[in-house]
Amino acid sequence: MKNIIKRSIYPLMLGFMIVLFNGCEKDEEGQLPIVETNALYNLTSIGAFCEGNITSDGGAKITNRGFCWSLDSSSAIVSNPTSAGMGKGYFTVKMFGLNPRTTYYVRAFASNRVGTTYSEVMMFKTPGDEIVFNPSKTYGTVTDVDNNTYKTIKIGNQTWMAENLKVITYNDSVAIPLFSDDMGWRNREAFNLPVYCGTYNNVLAFKDIYGAYYNWNVVNTGKLCPTGWHVPSENEWQALCNYLGGAGVAGSKLKETGSNHWWYNQSAEATNESGFTALPGGGGLGSGSFTSIGGYGYWWSSTMTADSNAVKFNIYCSDDGVFRYEINPRYGFSVRCIKDSQEE
To answer: What is the pLDDT of residue 67?
Structure first.
């Protein structure tokens, strides 16, 4: 009886092993994945978001995915590859450091153990980088110690700069220390020393539009703004918001219109009716990395809290408001100066 059972089981086991072996062999072979460039959004003069979609992994694990981009269509297949992790489905790549008024070509890629496939090439053109001031407003000017000239705007009884500060010298003609590397910035902050940097550590490429980033220790010297001007206090920021109807709606009245610089203004309609022309310069994290350019604007106040944090104000691309935060002074943010003498 036992021999009969053994003789009946052996063929079944053999058949199972053959099926299992064939299944594994097919999986080992696999096929190339299928990927497409799904969408392009948040286009500004210096960046864009590209969304891809892997609709088939070819029966094998996706080991790499992302986008390649170039200034000509023929080299887009291999130029500037930017990875977006692993796995099937939708993925997004942020492209920054682009040039304004320039045509680019992008295509998604996906890799598995069989090889790499690419989507069709998508073309896009970045808009211009000109700051869009309110044409119905009358602007004044002020010049800093480095001979940078800024537009100024009267809002209520306050007079503000209508551009982010870009000076790299104190108003007593002493140079502000520049550090464009992570270690240099952190060494300065460890001793609470002043420092500034440029967006993505590139002062020349971005300073004219977005200004420079300063840690709060630069603000605290009291020598950052042109003579007769100062970094606004928390109360002065709040007075600005109150004049524009409150912090909940002031952001849309402060933001530059259009999408030359903001990722989008559709969900929070920017009017710039104040003439302030807020720009989304983002900020430096104090760790060698940068965040939110195109999406958020961060500005220091001159106010420090009882627990040694500094007060800053944020404006977001997707919201109408102005938001107050307390944060460690080591971070690098934008500055707008306000005139010393105000009308009552």
So the answer is: 92
pLDDT of amino acid 7 = 44
Residues paired with 313 in a beta bridge: 299, 324
- Domains of the chain, by residue range, sit at 34-125, 140-339
Pairwise CA distance, residues 282 & 312, whole Å: 12
Three-class secondary structure of residue 14 per DSSP: helix
Sheet with 47-56, side-by-side order of all strands: 34-41, 47-56, 89-96
**Third-level CATH fold of 34-125:** Immunoglobulin-like (2.60.40)
Is residue 178 within 8 A of residue 196, CB to CB? The reply is: yes
Question: Which residues of the chain fall below pLDDT 70?
Answer: 1-29, 76, 179-205, 265-268, 285-291, 342-344
| Three-state DSSP class for residue 239 | helix
Distance CA 234, CA 252 (A): 19
Which segments within 261-308 are labelled E, that is strand?
283-284, 290-291, 296-304
What distances in angstroms separate CA 248 from CA 40, 89, 117, 161, one per listed residue? 30, 37, 48, 22
The reported pLDDT for the residue numbered 191 is: 42
Evaluate whether 117 touches 32 at the Cβ level (below 8 Å).
yes
